[in-house]
Amino acid sequence: MDAERARAFLLxxxxxxxxxxxGDNLVFWVGDKSIGGKMFALVDLSPxxxxxxxxxxxxERALELLEVEGFYPAPYLARAHWVATADWxxxxxxxxxAELRNxxxxxxxxxxxxxxxxxxxxxxxxxxxxxxxxKKLAQVGRTR
Length: 144
Hints:
- This protein is of the alpha+beta class.
- It has a single domain (3-143), classed as Aspartate Aminotransferase, domain 1 (Alpha-Beta Complex), CATH 3.90.1150.
- Helices cover 42% and strands 21% of the residues.
- The model has no long low-confidence stretch (mean pLDDT 91).
């Protein structure tokens, strides 16, 4: 696994959205953040990265992964049971897919009902609602 393969896989997960934030970080969200989506994985693309990937693991799985060589508590997000690693080779590709699928599921389960309801809408209606919401947020940002 590497950053490009991880990105390709993450974008196949239901309602996964990608943003580039905080410098060179690819942030993956369950649902668009404009409708209350939450991030579930972060891939640091910067050359001086302290970690290659951080992701939500959940309480029990985080404890298990922290016992695997190469994993450590994710900076800023450890209290939310996120883990990080600077080594793509600490897991096989199929294990990475399982962990990232789990990260998606952990965060999806934490989404508010209203966000899950929006994600359940037909794609066209959901897309229209997200576009409208982004326009409103942009207008609020301009008035500040």
